[in-house]
Amino acid sequence: MFRSPEPSLSRVIDPPTTSDERGLTHLRVVDADSYSDWESVYRDNIQRLYRLMYARVGNRADAEDLTSEVFRTALRPLNLALSKGEVRSYLLTTAQTVLASHWRRTLGTSVTLIDPESDMNSLVEPSGPEEPSDAPQRAGRILAALPERYRRILELRFLEACSIKEAAEAMGVSVSNAKVLQHRALRMAAKAGLEVEQ
Amino acid sequence: MTTRRLSAYTDALAAGRRPRSFQADPEDVEMLRVAIALRAARPGDAIADENFVAELHQQLSDDLSPSEPTDIHPLKRYRGRAAIFAVAAGLALVGGTVAVTETSNKATVQQSATAVPQRQALHTATFQSPTGQVVGQIVLYHGQPSWVFMNVDLPHSNGSLKCELHLANGEVVAAGAVELHDGSGQFSQSIHMDAGTARGATLYDSSGVVVASAVFI
Asked: Which residues in chain B have their CB less than 8 angstroms from residue A59's CB?
């Protein structure tokens, strides 16, 4: 599934471990394409994994819990001799199981999925605020297929963080009418078979 | 009728709160996917909070530190004993004539085994509860025959836990049930499947609630 890492080796210097060894340089040969310890695995993947989970559950609290569960489950038995690609694949497989358990536990059925192969790009993209994401494009496709009032209520609620009362005021309708609009808009988008990544 | 609960769920998503659980039907699922896709596009929220990253790092450091004192000692003893049980079970199932004695965290194995499982054919994983607590282990042996062994330790629990294996092709197969007595139970049996394709395992209680899950490496 993964290309074997090139046999490029690098040297890292470990600090002396005892007073008798003070001043000695310890050389440890590690593969340049592997992680040196669990912390490097964590640092390299925490943002990416969180972002993937957030895209699958849509709220910060669940995304944080599930991301924590993935690392707690995966790190203890992790074999650091694996390549970075294999470690990421392992993290994704763990995330797949964790997410599936989450949906079974909370809604009784699968709502969104993680596929270790097709989602591999999520873990190899650059990490940080500049990270590329196709979430705005997907949201744009959903909204573009809806009538104006349906599009507007969903924009206000999900993209502009308006409360139902604020959204109702912005649209000049009652709160109960705004709730109905939101429900119908979601149903129309769902029934339209819009391309929604799972 | 789940409209009200569905609305509550999507309202919570829109407000950035943790949604409450409910039993969703297929139409709900499609609408929830739309709501999640829209919510995921809100600028800024897809970046992990710095405090969360730091706190999880600290928790993992505590969990993974080999010099961690007191609190995790019972767990380490348990895991060591569980590993002995797992190896003993493997020898018993494959070797034929095996005697195992386990006394005070010490195992003695006397055997004239004909075939010890090759390490490459053994897949082990740790069962963890939804809250991250280690509650047992599972061992799969890929051979002729393949077999599964698991032990579970859930204090104050009794009854039967059903185990399902998740295969690489997406299939889910039943792997038996472990009976808990005073919170502990073990189970082993031969299985007629390609054990090498298993990617994970899940334990359910009698009401179908997930008790623990494990991921094979």
From this structure: 12-13, 16-19, 39
Structural domain span for residue B198:
70-215
- Give me the domain span that covers residue A116: 39-124
Together in a domain, B104 and B14: no
Per-residue DSSP letter, B66: T
Does residue B106 sit within a domain? yes
> According to the model, what pLDDT value does residue B111 have?
37
Number of domains in chain B: 2
Does the global pTM surpass 0.80?
A: no
For residue range B93-150, list pLDDT tens digits in order. 444 333 333 333 333 333 334 355 555 567 778 888 877 777 888 888 777 777 888 8
Please tell me if residue A172 touches chain B, with a CB cutoff of 8 Å: no
Same domain, A115 and A58: yes
- Residue-wise pLDDT for B163-176, tens only, equals 888 887 777 788 88
| Interface probe with A: pick from B38, B64, B67, B76, most Cβ of A within 10 Å | B38
State the burial class of residue A182 (Cβ atoms within 10 Å of its Cβ: 0-12, 13-18, 19+). buried
> Are residues B77 and B169 both part of a single domain?
yes
Query: Do B39 and B74 belong together in one domain?
Result: no
Using the 3D structure, point to which of A95, A124, A153 is the last residue of a domain. A124
CA–CA distance, B35 with B29 (Å, rounded to integer): 10
